[in-house]
Design a protein that fits this description.
Layout lengths: L9 E7 L6 E6 L12 E8 L3 H5 L3 E6 L5 E4 L7 E10 L2 E7 L4 E2 L5 E4 L3 E6 L2 E2 L2 E2 L2 E2 L8
Antiparallel strand pairs: 1-2, 2-5, 3-4, 3-6, 6-7, 6-8, 9-10, 10-13, 11-12
C-alpha cells in the first residue's frame, strides 16, 4: 500500500434490515495510519451471485458515501437474488483494500417463505439476527 492510501474498513461488514428490495450495510472506519491526510469516503459495490451467469459478471458500484458515513441502505435489489458486498475506503491518494461479506445475502421479505410449488406461506414475526420466530397464521395463505 502506498503512503497516504487508507487501509481497509474495519469489519465485519454487517448486513441488516434485509427486505425483498433493499438491505442495510454497516462497517467501521479504517484504523488511522501515518501519512493519511484526510478522512476517506467509501465506495460500496455489490455482486449478484444468484446464477452461474451472474457469478461471471464483476462487481458493480452501488454508491459513494461521504466521509464519516459508515452505513448505507442498498436499494433496487431483486427479490430472491443473492448478493455479495464490499466497501472500499478512498481518499485523494487512492483506494485501500476492500472489506467484503463472507457469504451471499438473499433479498427476501422477512414475513414470508417462498414455496417452490408456486406460492408464499406468510408467517407472523420476522427474522431477527438470524433467529426466526415463525408462527403460522390460523389459515395458511397461499398466493400464486
Amino acid at each position: 500500500m502506498s503512503a497516504g492510501v487508507p487501509g481497509a474498513p474495519r469489519g465485519p461488514l454487517a448486513v441488516s434490515d434485509v427486505l425483498r428490495n433493499s438491505m442495510t450495510l454497516s462497517w467501521q472506519p479504517p484504523a488511522p495510519t501515518d501519512g493519511e491526510s484526510s478522512s476517506p469516503h467509501y465506495i460500496v459495490e455489490r455482486r449478484d451471485v444468484t446464477t452461474p451467469a451472474d457469478r461471471l459478471s464483476g462487481w458493480s458500484r452501488v454508491a459513494r458515501t461521504r466521509a464519516h458515513v459508515y452505513s448505507y441502505v442498498v436499494p433496487h435489489l431483486v427479490d430472491g437474488h443473492r448478493y455479495l458486498y464490499r466497501v472500499i475506503a478512498e481518499n485523494e491518494h487512492g483506494r485501500g483494500p476492500p472489506l467484503e461479506t463472507r457469504h451471499p445475502v438473499e433479498a427476501k421479505s422477512p414475513f414470508c417463505t417462498y414455496l417452490h410449488q408456486g406460492g408464499y406461506i406468510f408467517y407472523a414475526g420476522a427474522s431477527i439476527a438470524g433467529v426466526s420466530r415463525r408462527r403460522r397464521w390460523p389459515r395458511l395463505l397461499l398466493l400464486s
